[in-house]
TrEMBL record:
UniProt entry tagged with the keyword Nucleus: no
Intracellular or extracellular location(s): Gas vesicle
Listed Pfam families: GvpL_GvpF (PF06386)
Highest taxon in the source lineage: Bacteria
Protein name: GvpL/GvpF family gas vesicle protein
Family affiliation: Belongs to the gas vesicle GvpF/GvpL family.
Keywords: Gas vesicle
InterPro entries per record: GvpL/GvpF (IPR009430)
Main localization, broad class: other
Length: 238
């Protein structure tokens, strides 16, 4: 029978899994496979793994339980192995890599910061700060039909948006990164201009959250930041 793998932990992690059920229609118990000083947290799975709401919640519940007692290396949703022996072979073959990675994240949790800016507020700020942009906008609104005017305004605004977002991202990273053991900048999506994951020591979480709250009050007009965490360190798994 195939096994679904949730995470890899150090051999001394308590892995308190009582009461947890794994993914799949049978809600199998979650258990541990051990080898090479490591513990893989798994459950049996019979059907094809799909990202159903109940299964995603079960996956996250296992990782949250593990994170409460020590930092594991989380696997992305959907990872399966043919059987327990296959899991042990992977633990044996990658023992040095896993142990190094676990040492790197020990005592930490991941926090994710996303930052975006309201487009209407940003555009108004640019028009207020740039005489040329304001002049072009006024000419367009007054009825001028020269096609070069909106083209120039669009290029000017786009360049200013990029410059402002780059500056804001740099300032946020500069302020928060020193509190992290490591950080990763991901490609932002949607209207966000920053997607930042930080590996924060558990004994420094309050200081980090206070710093973020202060930055959220001080960021530029229309800028909003959101924080998620503590999370398993997905961004720091080799």
């Amino acid at each position: 029978m195939a096994v679904y793998v949730y995470a890899v932990a150090r051999g001394d992690h308590p892995c308190r899994l009582d009461g947890l059920t794994g993914i799949g229609s049978g809600e199998p118990p979650v258990r541990v496979v051990e080898s090479a000083g490591l513990r893989a947290v798994v459950s049996d799975v019979e059907e094809e793994v799909r990202p159903r709401r109940r299964d995603i919640a079960a996956h996250q519940a296992v990782l949250d339980r593990l994170l409460a007692d020590g930092t594991p290396l989380p696997l992305r949703f959907g990872y399966t192995a043919p059987d327990d022996d296959s899991v042990r072979r992977v633990l044996d073959e990658r023992a040095a890599t896993y142990l190094d990675a676990l040492a790197g994240v020990q005592g930490c949790a991941e926090y994710n910061i996303k930052a975006g800016q309201e487009q209407s507020v940003l555009l108004r700020s640019i028009l207020d700060a740039s005489p040329r942009a304001s002049s072009l906008n006024d000419e367009i609104l007054s009825g001028h039909t020269d096609p070069r005017l909106p083209l120039e305004l669009g290029q000017l605004v786009a360049a200013e948006v990029e410059a402002r977002r780059s500056t804001a991202s740099t300032e946020l990273i500069r302020a928060l990164a020193p509190m992290a053991r490591a950080y990763v900048v991901h490609p932002p999506t949607g209207e966000d201009f920053l997607n930042l994951s930080l590996l924060i020591p558990r004994d420094g979480e309050d200081t980090f959250l206070d710093a973020h709250a202060g930055l959220a009050r001080e960021t530029g007009e229309g800028v909003r930041t959101r924080v998620a965490g503590p999370l398993p360190p997905y961004s720091f798994v080799p």
